[in-house]
From TrEMBL:
InterPro entries named among the record's database cross-references: NAD(P)-bd_dom_sf, Sc_DH/Rdtase_CS, SDR_fam
This protein's name: SDR family oxidoreductase
GO biological process, one term: bile acid metabolic process
Record CDD domains: SDR_c1 (cd05355)
Bias kind Basic and acidic residues: ranges: 1-20
Key word Amino-acid biosynthesis present: no
Length: 292
């Protein structure tokens, strides 16, 4: 790892790549997020499977993509704008012996999801795992500050995109396929400065549970992971310096989590180790107790 897991003087919130702010590359962050544990070599739990990971270029998405590759999965990474992050993640995946396809575009537009599925099938001829992890957030001090444009945009990126991608993929998913949605602890405890973002995350919880019931007879599992404060490019790109400095200090473990600390949960939900789980939530949040 680039740094040891320890108490860092940094951030509070949870997620992935911001698609509509002045985003930054992981290489610009100090300290850089930890996305891999080189001492863990993988056990072939996802051998020859094909996974689509949205927001897979950086943050939690990068950690997921790398962990999947180490378990033998080929990975299709969907990203919005950071070519440098995407190229680096692709190289890491290939260095672990898996294939990686990069696709750049706006998940908030339904036609892009159609292109993702078509291109994935052309390249790999199968889809086994879908991880919806791309998201954006724009902190505001009051509801009055949230414009119509921001409200529509955040719902398109955070929840409409999940509908679009899964709808296009479903005709090609077979029994045993796994869908994993990235939620947030804000879905359960709220956030006074992320009202619209929290609303999208609440929608993801209902979507995950309802879709899991709908697809149970087809033996396609649908689960979600709800991160707490995780150190990703989304944090310094959307919060003030003081917020970043104190990020993660309000949870029992009193520090932000690293992306690598979530990756194994996604491997578990994607693998045969979780075949009796659907409609469930894994909370990885530094010890905060939440319902759901």
């Amino acid at each position: 790892m680039k740094q040891e897991l320890k108490d860092h003087d940094m951030p509070r919130d949870e997620e992935i790549k911001d698609q509509n702010t002045d985003s930054i590359d992981e290489s610009e962050m100090d300290p850089e997020p930890i996305y891999d544990n080189p001492t863990h070599k993988g056990y072939g739990r996802l051998k020859d499977k094909v996974a689509i990971v949205t927001g897979g270029d950086s943050g939690i998405g990068r950690a997921i993509s790398v962990a999947f590759a180490k378990e033998g999965s080929h990975v299709v990474i969907i990203y919005y704008d950071s070519n440098e992050d995407a190229d680096k993640t692709k190289k890491i995946i290939e260095d672990y012996g898996s294939r990686c396809l990069l696709m750049k575009g706006d998940l908030g537009k339904s036609d892009f999801s159609r292109k993702i599925i078509e291109r994935t099938l052309e390249e790999f001829n199968r889809i086994d795992i879908i991880v919806n992890s791309a998201a954006e957030q724009h902190p505001k001090d009051s509801l009055e500050e949230i414009s119509d444009e921001q409200l529509e945009r955040i719902f398109r990126t955070n929840i409409f995109a999940m509908f679009y991608l899964i709808r296009e993929a479903l005709p090609h998913l077979k029994e045993g396929a796994s869908i994993i949605n990235t939620n947030s602890n804000t879905s359960f405890v709220g956030n006074p400065r992320l009202i619209d973002y929290s609303a999208t995350k609440g929608a993801i919880s209902s979507f995950t549970r309802s879709l899991s019931l709908n697809l149970a007879s087809r033996r396609i599992r649908v689960n979600q992971v709800a991160p707490g404060p995780i150190w990703t490019p989304l944090i310094p790109s959307t919060f003030s310096g003081d917020d970043v400095k104190n990020f993660g200090k309000n949870v029992p473990l009193a520090r932000p989590g690293q992306p690598v600390e979530l990756a194994e949960a996604y491997v578990f939900l994607a693998s045969d180790g979780s075949t009796y789980m659907t409609g469930q939530t894994l909370h990885i949040n530094g010890g905060e107790i939440v319902n759901g």
